[in-house]
Amino acid sequence: MPGPLAPKPIDRILDEAGQGGTPLARTLSAFGLGCIGVGATIGAGIFVLTGTAAAHYAGPGLVISFLLGGFASACVGLCYAELSAMIPVPGSTYTYAYATLGRLAAWIIGWDLVLEFAMAAATVAVGWSGYAQSLLADLGLRLPEALAAAPGVGGLVNLPAAGIVLALSLLLIAGNRRAAGANAGLVALKVAIILAFIVVGAWHVTPSLWSPLVPANTGTFGEFGWSGVLRGAGVVFFAFIGFETVATAAGETREPRRDLPAGLLGALLVTTLLYVAVAAVLTGLVPYRDLAVADPIAKAIDAIGLGAFAILIKLGALVGLTTATLTALYGQTRIFYAMARDRLLPEAFAQVHRGTRTPALSQGLTGLATALVAGFVPIEVLGELVSIGTLLAFTLVCAALLLLRRREPGRARPFRVPRAPLVAGLGILACLALMASLPADTWLRLGVWLALGLAIYAAYGRARAAPAREG
C-alpha cells in the first residue's frame, strides 16, 4: 500500500474523476471562467484592504506594492494555467500536491486552502458589511452598534456580513448555471463602475498627495519606506486571490484543456490593470494616512463631493464584494469535494445533489461556518491569515510544476509555461519574499492552523484514506 508521501499517479487522478455518483454539471465556458476569476479577484482587496495597506504600510507607494503583487501573481498564474490544463479535475492546488508530493502534503495544502477560500469569503463579507452600512447611512438608516461589528471592534456580531454569506450559499446550492449567470452580470456591472471611478477620480486627483511616493520609514520594519512597500505587497496580495478559483472549476468546464488557461490568465490581466489604476487614483484623492477605514473608495468619492455618484460607487463596491464572496464560497466546496472523494474528509462533502448537480450539503455547511467567522472575527486578522495561506499554496503550485516537468516530461501539456524553470523559480522567490514581509503573529497563527490540521489528519484522515489508496 502506498505511503502518505507517495505521489498519486496523474492517470489515476483522471480516471477517478469520471467515476462514481452524480457528476458535477459541465456548463462553464472560457468567458464564464474569466468572469469567475474577475468576480473572485476584484473584491475586498481593491475595495477594502487598499486603504489599510496605504495608511499603515506603503503610503502612495501602494502602486508599487500592487505591481509587485501582480508580478508574483503572473508567475504563479502561468503555473496554474499549465497544471489546470494538464490535470483538469476538481481540487486545484490540493490535487497538484497529491500528484507530486503525496497524501500528507495534499492534506496540509487542502487544510491551508481553507484560509484561502473560506477565510477569504469571510473577509470579503466583512468588507461588504462596511459598504452596506455606509450606503444605509446615506439613506438615513443605521444598524444598532451591537449588530454592526464583530466583538473587539465595537459590536457583538457583524450581522450583515453573516447574512450575505448565508444568502450567497443558498444561491450556490440552487445550481451552478444560475449562480454563474448571476456572477457574469454582476461582474460586468462591477467593472463598469470601477472604470467610472478611475475616469472621474483622475480629474480630481491632487498630485502633491503622491509625494513622497515612498514615505520615510517610521523606525519599524514594514511601516513605510521600502520595507513598507514590500509588506504592503504582502497584504494587498490578498487582492489577487481569486484568479486561481478558475482552476477549482475544472470539473464543471466544457473544454477544460482549452478554456482553463484562457479564463485564468485573462482574469489576472484585467484585474492587475484595474488595481494599479485604482491605487493611483485613491492615493491621489485622499491623504494616505486617512485611508485606514473599511470603505476607502467610498471615502475618496465623498472627498470629491459628487453626491449621487458616491452612491453609485458604493453600489459598485457592494456588487464587487458580492461576487468575490460568491466565488470564494464556490471554490471552497470544490476543494472539499476533491478531498472527500479521496476520503480525507467525510463523504458527505462529495455528495452531489441529483437535481442541482452541486455539492449542496457541503455548500450549506461551508456557508454556515463561514458566516460565523464573518460575524465574529475582525477584518484585520482575517486579511493577513488569507494572504499567508494563499502564498503558501502558490509556492507549492510553482514547485509542483517543476517536479512534474522533471518526472513526466513527455506528458501532454495543452498549455506550456515559457521558460518554466525561470518563471516558476521567480514565483517561488516572490511568494517567499512576500510571506517573509508579513508580521510574526501572522506566522504564529498559520503554525497553529497547520498544527490543528495535522491533528485532524492523524485522528481521522490517515486511517480513512488508506483503503481508498489500495485500489
TrEMBL record:
<protein>
    <submittedName>
        <fullName>Amino acid permease</fullName>
    </submittedName>
</protein>
<dbReference type="GO" id="GO:0015171">
    <property type="term" value="F:amino acid transmembrane transporter activity"/>
</dbReference>
<feature type="transmembrane region" description="Helical">
    <location>
        <begin position="224"/>
        <end position="243"/>
    </location>
</feature>
<dbReference type="Pfam" id="PF13520">
    <property type="entry name" value="AA_permease_2"/>
</dbReference>
<feature type="transmembrane region" description="Helical">
    <location>
        <begin position="442"/>
        <end position="460"/>
    </location>
</feature>
<feature type="transmembrane region" description="Helical">
    <location>
        <begin position="186"/>
        <end position="204"/>
    </location>
</feature>
<feature type="transmembrane region" description="Helical">
    <location>
        <begin position="28"/>
        <end position="50"/>
    </location>
</feature>
<feature type="transmembrane region" description="Helical">
    <location>
        <begin position="416"/>
        <end position="436"/>
    </location>
</feature>
<feature type="transmembrane region" description="Helical">
    <location>
        <begin position="264"/>
        <end position="286"/>
    </location>
</feature>
<feature type="transmembrane region" description="Helical">
    <location>
        <begin position="306"/>
        <end position="331"/>
    </location>
</feature>
<feature type="transmembrane region" description="Helical">
    <location>
        <begin position="62"/>
        <end position="83"/>
    </location>
</feature>
<keyword id="KW-0812">Transmembrane</keyword>
<dbReference type="InterPro" id="IPR002293">
    <property type="entry name" value="AA/rel_permease1"/>
</dbReference>
<feature type="transmembrane region" description="Helical">
    <location>
        <begin position="385"/>
        <end position="404"/>
    </location>
</feature>
<feature type="transmembrane region" description="Helical">
    <location>
        <begin position="360"/>
        <end position="379"/>
    </location>
</feature>
<keyword id="KW-0813">Transport</keyword>
<keyword id="KW-0472">Membrane</keyword>
<feature type="transmembrane region" description="Helical">
    <location>
        <begin position="104"/>
        <end position="128"/>
    </location>
</feature>
<feature type="transmembrane region" description="Helical">
    <location>
        <begin position="148"/>
        <end position="174"/>
    </location>
</feature>
<dbReference type="GO" id="GO:0016020">
    <property type="term" value="C:membrane"/>
</dbReference>
<keyword id="KW-1133">Transmembrane helix</keyword>
